[in-house]
Amino acid sequence: MTLIVAGLVSKRELFLGADSRLSSGTATWDYATKIFRLYPTEDYVAYCGQSLQALLAISQGLQLLANTSILGKSGSADTPQITARAAAFFDHMQEIMTHFPPAWGKSCELLMAGYNHRLKRPSLYRLALGTEPKEPAEIPMEEQWFECMGSGASLAEPILKARTPPKSGKDVYDTVYQVIEGKKEATVGGCVQMAVIREGSSRTIGFQMDQALRVVMGFPARFASGMPKVLWFDPNFKRVRASQTVRRHMAKRAK
Q1: What pLDDT is recorded for position 182?
Q2: Which of 13-17, 118-122, 127-131, 246-250 has the highest mean pLDDT?
Q3: Which terminus of the chain has fewer Cβ atoms in its 10 Å neighbourhood, N or C?
Q4: In CATH, what number is assigned to the domain containing residue 118?
Q5: How far is residue 248's CA from residue 238's CA, in Å, rounded to a whole number?
Q6: Eight-class DSSP state of 102
Q7: Nearest to 207 by CA among 238, 176, 252
Q8: Is 86 exposed, middle or buried (0-12, 13-18, 19+ CB in 10 A)?
Q9: Torsions phi, psi for 170 (to 5 deg)
Q10: Are 123 and 138 within 8 A, CB to CB?
Q11: Stated pTM of the model
Q12: Contact 5, 150 (CB under 8 A)
């Protein structure tokens, strides 16, 4: 299935983390994107399910929304509040799932995270799509700073409960990484993918794995282009400036 971890590390900052494995019978694929930016807003959506086809439908639905004005832009005067954005997103995606072939997977769950400008903090919503839909329900993150979903949740929760303040994005990263590397749940694997939700500056997080390899949202990026909208970290979750290192390495290889 998958592992999704959300951590509210402060009143102004929430991190989403996930593995990148999709499984079908004995076949696995370790390069699946499970965390998506919900354009034109700065909200993010994390996918939890077994079906590759359902994930494709989610991706298509997000692309369609990106070309509409239904959700507005985060922070603009005419932008609906996060509660209304979550409801509109649910209605749109559930309509897609009603036309989805049952043989391809009947349901999936999603976490939607975005900044709540009224309460001045990030908010997290859980929703289910498919044959047993559940409208968005806000998760009270101020009561328990983390939320886990998926087949790896029972392995992740004890790790997070053992974490002591101050909490950070590294706690989310380490938890997903430990469950992946522990290999106790066969449906959780691949690499860590992440995003951070902040007021006015939500960003995708990428990882500089070595001199030549960057990984963004579960997928390897072996090219020299800069990615100014991505925050880069090394495998120890320390901030790095990845683009120049990769550019020099790729230029050297081209000679």
Answers
A1: 97
A2: 13-17
A3: C
A4: 3.60.20.10
A5: 21
A6: G
A7: 238
A8: buried
A9: -65, -30
A10: yes
A11: 0.89
A12: no
Tokens at residue 201, please? Answer: 């500056």
Q: Tell me, rounded to whole angstroms, the distance of Cα 247 from its chain centroid.
A: 27
Q: Report the alpha-carbon distance of residue 103 to residue 7 in Å, rounded.
A: 34
- Whether residues 171 and 64 fall in one domain: yes
188 vs 22: CA distance, rounded Å:
8
DSSP string, 3-67: EEEEEEEETTEEEEEE---EEETTEEES----EEEETTTTEEEEEE-S-HHHHHHHHHHHHHHHT
- Whether 208 and 98 map to the same domain: the answer is no
Task: Provide the domain limits for residue 207.
Answer: 202-255
Q: What is the pLDDT of residue 243?
A: 52
Let me know: does 109 contact 85? Beta carbons within 8 Å. no
Q: Say yes or no: 42 and 104 in one domain.
A: yes
pLDDT of residue 249: 46
**Final residue of a domain: which of 173, 198, 223?**
198
- One domain for residues 87 and 213: no
- The answer on 234 and 159 residing in a single domain is no
**C-alpha triplet 211, 168, 165: angle, nearest 5°:** 140
Q: Which of 114, 72, 108 is nearest to 93 (CA)?
A: 108
| CA distances (Å), origin 100, targets 32, 89, 105, 127 | 20, 17, 8, 17
